[in-house]
Amino acid sequence: MKIAYVIPEFVTEKEFGGLAVYYDNISRLLAEEGHQIYIFVLSDQTKTVDYYPGITVEKVYVDLQHVNAQIQGSFIRERSRVVSEKLLAYMRYGVRFDVVQYANLWALGVERINVPTVVRISSYQPFLRAADQEFFDIGRMYETEKVSDYLEEIATLRADAVYSPSKCIADIIAGRTGRNITIIESPFYPRKAVREDEKLFEERLKNQKYILSFGTVKILKGAKLIGDSIYQVLSACPDLVWVFAGSEFPWKDGAGNIVSPKEYIREHAREYMDRVIFLGKLNQEELFPIVRHALFCVMPSRIDNLPNTCIEAMALGKVVIGTTGASFEQLIDNGRSGFLIERENKDALMGAIQYVYGMSEEQREEIGREAQIRIEAMQPKKITEQLIAFYLSVIKSFEGIKETDSYTKSVIKKYNDAMREINDREAERYILKW
Fold first, then answer.
1. Alpha carbon 355 to chain centroid distance?
2. Would 2-187+382-430 and 199-376 be classified into the same CATH topology?
3. Euclidean distance between CA atoms 33 and 389, whole angstroms
């Protein structure tokens, strides 16, 4: 099967996150089974790379200098148009794609081509934006409101099929659009080539009793809640150190001031500041020994998408404290394979940390074993079988791009109305004709 993945980031680029790691993993797994994978990724250069046996990476540079930035969504439309031209160029040269899969992020599939088309949902921007602000209401259903939101929704609606690794995110999207969304979890794919490097652990953390929060350090991932709780935690657990690994991303407070997560957490630790350690962004070789030696892991996210951090920690036999309503409940059976707390609940976080801290090593190991059993359900062979069966069903039922339904038309109308409100004749060329 020839499969094209159209994505905004990949591991070949300077900056990338969990989305890129997923596509790296799934591409390698499928290529190892004999499928031919073509990755079209936004880049700062145009270049073709023979990345891995069976995997071609087409770096796509999109020149946005001639695009009017005052027109909302114009960059998104231009990126989607250029990538679609690249796909069609490959087809003119004789590459027959069996299926094209787009990430929902940045709506790269809004200008989809007439090939069986799939969208993988990894986020819902209105929730992500809200969760990245200082004040976040966990009970509110945040709505599509920006032109970029409409475009992502339109790209999702126009796909022939949609899947998501996260039931939490899928339920949000399905509730908005009425689309049937298949759940296919991400595979746990530990690289055989990764050789753990314990040097950093030996230098900074050996003989320390520490808990670990890793991944990005930002308000969406619970940085403010941690800062608000850390003094109580370190006061109640006098021999405990809290370690953070990952890049930090600031947020704005209610007055518009930039807040550094690192400084916020350190300041709130007060006299226990020396028991707070920030290691910055680490590679897997450095990170895995630090996860392995941690007492347990704390991940109090406001919203998440079946996070790799939780999967990796559970696979290494670690107890994870996660949050309900943020997709951790899909991985963690509370009290058996980890622990779940209410989002944004400082007392609940404090109570869970104290409880797990007070457990015997044997008790934590037993929960760690249950965590590993859960991750076994995400073994690569099982996931690739599900994914290929999903692709084959899409290909079998494909009859060309269908006439849009009434809901899709209503979203397109909202987008077109937003374009017409712009006092610029150039905005007319961004009107969607479907």
1. 29
2. yes
3. 14
Residue 290's SS3 state is helix
Contacts of 156 (CB under 8 A, 6+ apart): 104, 109, 119, 121, 162, 173, 177, 179
Among 155, 164, 158, 115, which Cα is nearest to 398's? 115
The answer on pLDDT for 273 being more than 90 is yes
CA atoms within 13 Å, Cβ hemisphere of 354: 15
Helix (H) or strand (E) holding 56: strand 55-61
Q: Average pLDDT of 178-188?
A: 92
Task: Express each pLDDT in 392-430 by its tens digit.
Answer: 999 999 988 876 777 788 888 888 888 777 766 677 777
Range of weakest confidence among 107-116, 170-179, 187-196, 414-423: 187-196
Average pLDDT score over residue span 184-192: 80
> If you average pLDDT over residues 70-88, what whole number do you get?
93
Identify the DSSP state of 431.
-
Answer for the pair 125, 51: CB distance below 8 angstroms, yes or no. no
Name the DSSP letter for residue 185.
Answer: P
Contact 154, 415 (CB under 8 A): yes
Architecture of domain 2-187+382-430: 3-Layer(aba) Sandwich (3.40)
Residue 188 DSSP class: P
The Cα-based distances of 414 to 107, 190, 434 in angstroms read 16, 44, 13
Residue-wise pLDDT tens digits, 44-53: 999 999 999 9
Among 227, 204, 207, 223, which Cα is nearest to 215's?
A: 223
> What is the residue extent of each domain of the chain?
2-187+382-430, 199-376
* CATH number, domain 199-376, options 3.30.70.20, 3.10.20.30, 3.40.50.2300, 3.40.50.2000: 3.40.50.2000
| Secondary structure of residue 1 in the 3-state scheme | coil
- Angstrom distance (rounded) from CA 265 to CA 155: 39
CA distance 26 to 384: 8
| Chain position carrying tokens 């790691």 | 21
Contact 160, 394 (CB under 8 A): yes
Residue 327: pLDDT band by 50, 70, 90 thresholds? very high
Q: Look at the alpha carbons of 125, 119, 174, 186 in this order and tell me if their dihedral is positive or negative.
A: negative
